[in-house]
Amino acid sequence: MGLKSNWDWEVGQKTVVESLSPMQGHGWQEEPYVSDDGETLAAIVQVDEGEFSIRTNDTVWENTFEKIWFPRFSPDGRLTALCQQDMEWALAVDGELVGETTDYVWQTKFSKDGSVIATMYKSMEQYAVAINGEPWEELYENVNQYTITSDGAHSAGVAQVVSLDQADVEGFKKGVYSVVVDGKTWEEKFLNVWTPTFDAEGKRVAAQVRTSPYDYTIAVDGKPWSTVYNQVWEPVFHPTDGSVAAPARQAGKWGVAKDGQMLWEPRYLQCLELQYSADGSKLWAVVATSYGQFTACCNNAPWGETWDVAYDLVVSPDGKRAGLLVNKDNADFRIVIDGTAWQGVYDMAWPVVFSDDSKNVAAMVEKGGRYKILVNGKPFERDFDHAWPPIFSEDGTKILIRAIENNSYVRIVADVAQF
């Protein structure tokens, strides 16, 4: 698939798959997935009793498997799935198994360019991360919350590194969890560890840690901050100076701590989804200014309007703008851009997408079972039976719409100016 500049950006509509009904001889067909460039649709199909494969447009993988799940397209356009053969599991790429089969694999992740594909890996009740089908040399009793760097060169996860007998509370209090980076464990152990996070260069790792039954802090490369808090959330690295920031709770209020010192004073009822702009000049978060009043916040300055629920914060490439999803009682979903809600209330909404130049914003919404694509708050000329999130061209002048209508899968390129 490659760079977006290499995709077909000619304005117009193309019917990629004429009929999405099961192909002749297939017992059933599961939900479809589509590639980023919109050129390929994939779905798991039953080709015979106890035999499954994947349909891609109007063809089917040659190989069949006992079970298949989690089909996903990599950024470079390859189609992956998790497949069982002879009662063991492996990652399959374009229909071919990668690496040796094992007890189980799950949670596929990709490097930014798609050249590296990672999964969780289980063998003989031991766990690891597998990179392109190859697990870490050492396996552990428990591995979870794994992550990989954007180039796929490094991986990390939370691992249980000390065995415990049932109800061994005192053993647990001594610390049984740590972070494993590329198969090597931090020396320090903690009661709990969450969300290991790499810096931009993939050389350092920070994570939430629990140092006692009541104390939480951030550990960086295995070394916890000297300051502890009532609670913390996922840390982030500054993109240029290497410092680490995280939401932190003190005396019942939330703020942001940086390298163990308070950067934003604790004054919020909640603070989460922390993220820096690309140049590090702006630090964004979702905050609750009082009970049940959530909004976005930039450099400790909240937007003026608040909502019952706010989440899925997306910061524009230039760091100056942001979008949120908001709702009330898990209904009446709305899209908020730069502190102002777009017109329209929906049954569901998906995270917003900014153009590369940060000037335009698109989103997908659903109401009454019909899917709409919005650009700058304005809907495309028609709605669809189903759709996938829109994608801007590199210059931001066109939008790619991938949708199902009248049992066909269509690929539409529209001018942003027509919205």
UniProtKB/TrEMBL annotation:
Superkingdom, taxonomy of origin: Bacteria
Protein's name according to its UniProt entry: WD40 repeat domain-containing protein
NCBIfam families xrefs: TmcD_fam
